[in-house]
Amino acid sequence: MSQNDQVSRKEYKKNNNNKQPKEKRSAGKWVKRLFLTLFTLVLIAVIAGGSLFVYYAASAPEMTEDDLLGTFSSELVDKDGEVFYTLGAESRNFANPDEFPDVMIDAMTAIEDQRFDSHMGVDPIGIARAAAGYLTNRGQISGGGSTITQQLVKLSVFSTAREDQTLQRKAQEAWLAVQLERQLSKEQIMSLYLNKIHMAGNVYGVATAAEEYYGKHVSELEIHEAALFAGMAQAPNRFNPYVNPDLAERRRNVVISVMRNEGMITEEEASAAMNTPVTEGLIELTQEEQNHMVFDGYLVTVLDEVRSKTGLDPFTAGLTIETNLDMDAQQRVYDVLNSDEYVDFVNEDIQSAVSLVEAETGKVRALGGGRNQEGQLSTNRTAQAKAVGSTIKPLTTYGPAIEFLQYSTYHQIIDEEYTVDGTDWSPRNYDRQFRGQISLRDALVDSRNVPAAKVMNEDLETGQIEDFLTNVGIDPESINSADGTIFPQNAINGLITPLQLAGSYATFANGGNYTEPYTVSKVITADGQEIDLTPETNQAISDYTAYMITDVLKDVVANQTNTLGISNLPQAGKTGTTNFTEENLEQYNYPSDAVPDSWYVGYTSNYSLSVWTGFDSYADGYLTLNDGTRQLPRHIYREIMEYVSEGLDNSDWSRPSSVTEVAVEDGSDPAQLPGPNTPSSNIVTELFVTGTEPTDVSTSYGEELGAPSGLSADYDEESDELTITWDDYELETDEESVSYNLSVNGQSTSLSDTEATITEPPSGSLTITLSVSAFGNTGPESSISITIPDRIDEEEEEEPEEELEEEPEEEPEEEEEPEEDTPVTEPDPSDDEEEDEEIEEEPEDEEPAESEDEEAEEPAEDENDE
């Protein structure tokens, strides 16, 4: 190798050795910068988070021994000031730490806080999870991470409402939990927690639950029982074994599985516990608990209302809660729903929901959350959104049409085959027929689907519908389960709770004024602070809308008096049903007339009452016409409304000055006043917003008829004939002809000529009347009188005194003997050989009989609302 080659290789190596470290140093520099940046950001976040934690912790409330023991109870009073229920501590049993069995403590730590024995009150992993939830859930903690110590702090001094689960609250919980861990032992903390947690209904603490559920001391709890209580801590009412046994059993088995996986119990013990039915060993409710079921749905609503409006926990805050409960009405609601004394439910599985609202104030007087329920704080169906069928029509269609478009109750709509523009939806009527042109009144009373769909989708704007719904207490975004917009089908169906429905119809009953339905009027805190929860009353819709809708819905009751009629009680209301799809009917093998839901919502000037009947799921059953279950809401309504209306001033609604009652010619479109010849059978009385009344007069039945002129009578004594004549009556139209109604001394005939002759009219004074008939009507009469002289018989005339020259007497011809059996006719004494002519008595030309409308059948209750 030459020297030059060696130099070249050295230079190459040198050059490459110099470049490579430079690139490595550059890459390392960027990694270092990135690490420092991230470290700085984390450090800033830690410092900021720590500073924020300190800031929040500094404002944490003080926690006392009374807070931890939670001995404050709340009293609920009814509308008369009588205490009807006490929440919380009065019936609570406290157990000492050594009385809780290991299996109970193991079950609770397994499912709620597996690091309970080792942490200092907070779980860092849980804190991080809560912080992440705060960032991804719009400033609210989505759950997870709380230790048993933190939960004890929350139950003792903070609200348990979800909206209060903020980062500040979590920081304060954590701070107080750390302080508590320094003051108490783990055993004491666990004991306080187990004595404090809610165990569904009015049961607090595991020791109390052991007695209430199993009739045993807490120290005797077995694995499956302890696991049930541990599982209930997350959502006590949801996992109540009396109310939701299937959910409770699944939750219990989750706890058992975790206990097995954590080595707390053996595989055999876990299997035996899981195979034990969750209802095994449960004792029956006491008589007191059964009495409490009378107002259980009302109680659930009260608790939710207090929490949402005050942020206070009624179970622990020591409140006096003044409610609007009418105990007599509540008892009747419970009795009607839970016995066969008033209504034959046919099927014990049929469920129902009843909401009774005072129309003027919005006070909820009674609620029925369901039938045959067990366990306090059970399912409250009055607060569950359900498909309401045609009861929605006054809210999304006809109410807005009157309110914003000032439609009259006569407004004409064509009931015909129809498809909503831009969709493939073609609504069908319950009878699969079309009635053609009908009024708004008929369309609503007969619950026709096509007219409702037309008015909502062709005449109204979406904003008008949304405003109307909002004003009467219904969120437009909630009436569909989809994207929260108004659908074409909302003309005939939508999702509304029974309590909302009663509240919205109370607006019609109260002249257009709306008050949000409420169960609690006032809350008084333990320190004497009074919190008024009475909502404001607002003019939600015009008084003309309220009155006109009410007037139409009164016809619904009038057409169904056999199921809705109550003596001396003015009332209005609307039926509603929903439908299964064809797939549903086939899947469950249900008959073609089966429906899942049936409704009736009605009101008087005092109360609004909504009733739903149906099943909690499609698989549970159906309602039909054959067994009467589709009429159940009307029977329930009548039993309750009749009872609560006794002794009240049940006045009818007064028509406001904004509404005018007008007689119009039926079938005219737009509305026209009756013409002079409009038959009475074609005149209907309808309601118009004042200032929109029709002014045009109908000419459908022709001109006004007058009395005929030129009526005269002349008697010819020689011919003994009475001749009556009159002028020709001319109509303005050539399309109609007239007939003349002639009456002589009460004997009438109808003629087309202008003259009549009567031979040998009766002697004495005769009254002659004449009128004209045309267009199915008869005009006024013209009248004259004439006197016919008495007639002298020829045989009674005297012979003349002077005799004429006597002529030879001719012998009379011999009369032929009449043939045998041929009657002999007496000669007529008059000179005329013709028979006396009399006025031929023709049938009276009666006015066209009023075509009475056929008695309207009861509108089938919104069956098959599409």
Radius of gyration: 46 Å
Q: Shape, please?
A: elongated
Helicity range: 25-40%
- Please state the structural category: alpha+beta
- In what range is the share of β-strand residues? 15-25%
Lateral strand order in the biggest sheet: 2-1-3-11-12
Low-pLDDT ranges? 1-10, 12-20, 138-143, 794-799, 801-866
Mean pLDDT: 85
How many helical stretches? 23
Count of DSSP E strands? 26
Strand count, sense and barrel status of the largest sheet are: 5 strands, mixed
Specify the oligomeric state.
single chain
Q: How far apart, in Å, are the first and last alpha carbons?
A: 100 Å
Describe what you observe in this structure.
With 866 residues, the chain is α+β, with helices and mostly antiparallel strands. The protein is 34% helix and 15% strand. The strands form 8 sheets. It has a 5-stranded mixed sheet with strand order 2-1-3-11-12, with helices on one face. A 5-stranded antiparallel sheet has the order 5-4-16-15-14. Strands 21, 22, 24, 25 and 26 form a 5-stranded antiparallel sheet that branches. A hairpin with a 5-residue loop joins strand 1 and strand 2 (83-87). The longest helix is centred in the N-terminal third of the chain and has 56 residues, at 3-58.
